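We were asked to recover a plausible sequence for a given structure. The inputs and outputs are reproduced exactly as logged, with field labels preserved.

PROBLEM: sequence recovery
POSITIONS: 308
GIVEN STRUCTURE:
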């Protein structure tokens, strides 16, 4: 099984060396490292050039678009059977590649998977890695807007008939879930290579939750997606915590565009033939607008007009 690692990078010359250096220390080296660079003038090109002698780097230049364009460029250009993604501000555990390879070799129906992502800190040249999970685990209440699509019956984290998500607690080290994390995920190339990701998110500014769309593309091709949660066997990365985030800045427009992506998911899934329900969709919109109503109402109106 050949392995490609994809890193999409933009304005991260300060952290990109840490991500690339972690790949040079892998117990199983990747067969190629696809770096998708959106030029910003911050010196990232020099960082990449420095690592060309240490890693089998394939450099792609992204001229336009958001993260979904970069991700699609990555998996379409990758030559490996297995395509691993890590953020440009993340550090991989030394067995990161090896653990993903082992999982996909053992689980034949796995189209995609995410491992464990912990918080890391970088300050004044010092790196601190913690065992604090980078993303909190939350569960949803029931209701007609949270019923899973047929493809996700039996999943612990699913895409619902409204296009929104649903989840329940599951006590296992490996669970079936649609909730993969872009900072630390892997795909069989054949499960996603035909997925029209950038087209589906062409009106998006941030590409929020694009991973779930990839998961559905994988699912309709007959594959399952998994969360791996055992620290002894799960692929692990440390996501560096900082304020220079392109999607997590608190603002009116951040909320507007993030919610637009939730509104648009119904139409994106519908185009792929999902058994979504307009009734469930409308209920989900009404319920979710109780919080942060102004940006969400405007995002809903915009989403209903342009759809996806």
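RECOVERED SEQUENCE:
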């Amino acid at each position: 099984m050949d392995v490609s690692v994809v890193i999409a990078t933009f304005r991260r010359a300060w952290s990109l060396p840490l991500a690339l250096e972690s790949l040079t220390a892998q117990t199983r080296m990747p067969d190629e490292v696809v770096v998708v660079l959106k030029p910003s003038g911050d010196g990232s090109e020099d960082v990449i050039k420095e690592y060309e002698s240490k890693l089998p780097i394939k450099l792609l230049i992204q001229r336009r678009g958001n993260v979904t364009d970069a991700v699609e460029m990555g998996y379409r250009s990758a030559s490996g059977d297995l395509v691993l993604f890590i953020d440009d501000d993340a550090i991989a555990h030394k067995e990161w590649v090896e653990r993903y390879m082992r999982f996909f070799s053992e689980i034949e129906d796995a189209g995609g998977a995410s491992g464990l992502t912990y918080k890391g800190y970088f300050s004044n040249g010092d790196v601190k890695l913690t065992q604090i999970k980078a993303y909190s685990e939350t569960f949803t209440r029931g209701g007609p807007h949270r019923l899973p699509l047929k493809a996700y019956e039996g999943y612990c984290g699913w895409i619902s008939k409204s296009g929104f998500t649903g989840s329940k607690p599951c006590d296992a080290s490996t669970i079936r879930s649609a909730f993969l994390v872009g900072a630390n995920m892997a795909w069989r190339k054949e499960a996603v290579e035909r997925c029209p990701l950038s087209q589906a998110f062409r009106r998006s500014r941030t590409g929020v939750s694009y991973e779930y769309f990839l998961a559905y593309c994988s699912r309709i091709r007959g594959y399952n997606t998994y969360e791996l949660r055992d620290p002894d066997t799960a692929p692990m990365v440390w996501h560096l915590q900082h304020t220079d985030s392109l999607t997590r800045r608190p603002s009116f427009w951040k909320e507007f565009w993030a919610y637009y992506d939730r509104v648009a998911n119904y139409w994106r899934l519908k185009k792929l033939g999902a058994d979504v329900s307009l009734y469930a969709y409308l209920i989900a919109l009404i319920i979710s607008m109780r919080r942060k109503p102004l940006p969400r109402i405007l995002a809903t109106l915009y989403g209903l007009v342009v759809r996806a």
